[in-house]
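Hi P.,

Sorry for the delay on this. The queue was packed all week, but I finally got your sequence through. Input first:
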Amino acid sequence: MNNNKAQIAIIAMFLVFTLSLSVLFFALPKEKFSVSENRYLADAPTVSFKNFIDGELSQELEGDKGGYIPDYFPFRSFFVGVNSYWNYLTGTTVANNYYLSKDGYIIEKPYITTGLEKNLSVINRFAATFDEVMLMVVPSVGEMMSSKLPSVHAEYEDARVFEYISENKAENIKFLDLRESFGDCVAGGEQIYYKTDHHWTSLGAFVAYGYYCDSLGLEYTPKEEYTVTEHPGFYGSTYSGSGYFLAKPDTLEIWQSEKSKDSIKVSITNEGVTNEYRSPFFEENLKEKDMYTAYLDGIQPTVVIENKNAKTDKTLLIVKDSFAQCAAPFFSETYSKVIMIDLRGNKQPVSTLAKTEGADDVLILYGISALCNDSGDLPWLR
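Then the structure:
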């Protein structure tokens, strides 16, 4: 009798739990964009007899790589975290596409390379309209911080990708290989990548800026001329995506050049509206969940930084992904005008814009993962 009561109680608890989750799934508000994961969530599928028979409805609801149900499942982050730590404790080195690594690093598993050939051919065609184009590809965290990875992990293909670029790029493309400079920083114990985010730190961006200027024979502002303010409590994309919620946060840094502090004008254009600001740093965003938007207010289609005290009177056009957010203020130390184009929101012909603006130099700056992705926005480059 007692066993029957216990079984009934367990079944009742299970039904209440399941019913509660079902009610919450339909009752909770549905946000279109996940700040913690830095991505748009799945749209509600259109239900019809045809897409039910074809299997499209099931794919949209559950999907191989996520869908409407997993995206909006109640307490999703908690359950993802429990699953991640369970996998880790039971010997699975990669969970939810991330490695929990030494010294608090959460490192994304190796990227796909199926889009590399197509994207490089797009860049080559774009470069044909200029005398010279600079291409800077940010190496992966997994490659540069390989000593932090668990002993069992998939191999990163940075070496093959960089070799392919070197051998197949157009002759007028100057390829800037950061691996040696970054390797020296890692060997010296300097943190050039965040532990809970896939981006480089401000130090990493500064090293890239210095390497760029050295490669082109340009003067740059040395490290000692910046005032650095530290802002702890930064949890980035790999923290959010992995579910490793016990990880310690990073410290985000703002590097402010004293010589340029009062000489900067920033113009941000989005959906035809342009707003002007006196600083590339939006420190009020440090109170937001995504602290990385403190750099130039996050991803914007078009950003122009003008500096009256720059070391040259040249104009630089940057076609970029999010790695350029914290790098652009450094480049504005050397160039009196920096124009940044993000192809995710700006589909205008970049080559026409470069000529209209009289760009002296053109830089394509992408993380290696985005450069190799076959579903990115680089095909819009023209």
